[in-house]
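Q: C-alpha cells for this one, please.
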Amino acid sequence: MPAREDLKNLSLLGTSESRLPANPDEARLETFENQRVGRRYWITLNCPEFSSLCPVTGQPDSARLVIRYVPGERCVETKSLKFYLASFRNQPAFNEEIVNRILDDLVDALAPVEMIVRGEFAPRGGIQLTTEATFPDAAGVKP
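A: Here is the predicted structure, written as C-alpha cells:
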C-alpha cells in the first residue's frame, strides 16, 4: 500500500505521548482524509468512561459518550479524540454545555455531513441526565 501524505501530519498516533491536555482549549483534534468521500456511511465512537466536574459542587460527573457521524472530507483520529475527551476530566462545566462544546469542536475540525453527540450522565440525586446535540440542527444552521 502506498504511503499517504495526509498521515504525516498526525502528531499523536504512533508516539508514546502520555501527557494529557489540561483543558479542551489546549487539546488538538487531529484529522485525516476520508478515503470514501461521496459514500454515506456512519462512524460510531463510544467513550464509556467520560468524566468532568460539576461547576457548582466540584464533584466529578461521569458519562457514556457516543459520537456518531457521517464524514465529509475528514475523519477524526481516535488517539487525539481520546486526549481531547480526557481534557474535560478537570473541566468544570454543566453536562449540557459539555455535549454541545464537543459537537461544536468536532464540527469545526471535521465539517461532517451529519453528526450526533450523546452524553448519558450517571444519576445525581436520583435523576439521570442525557443530552443529545445534532448537526445540522433542526433549522439546518451550522453552530
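A few notes: The first strand starts at residue 31 and ends at 33. The radius of gyration is 16 Å.
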